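Recap from last week: sequence in, structure out.
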Amino acid sequence: MTQRNQAIGIILGFFLVIGINSLILALSGGIVYATCYLTPTSGNYYRIPSDFFLVIAVLFIAIFLSIGVAQLLYVIPLILWLQRRQHWGMMKGVIAGATITAFLNASPFVVSLFIR
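Predicted structure tokens:
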């Protein structure tokens, strides 16, 4: 593989992870919105969700806030699949994108530890 092809693979892998992360965030945000605010009742208003919907909302809020941990569910199989197909450049880009996402996700938690 030439240097140019590997660089293109790294860029494609990076944007693949960013795209999947954006899709997961949009889906979990939509599910949280739907379970919290679109639970119909009799009448013209919406009420606080029932226990079932509240559990679903909390689950997806947790996914929304911890995308760095949740991405392990799809990044590790993607890396193994790319390794099996010997797409080394794209695999490096996926690893770089996942690492950057994890660092960006962890930074607010680390900062909050030092703020009193």
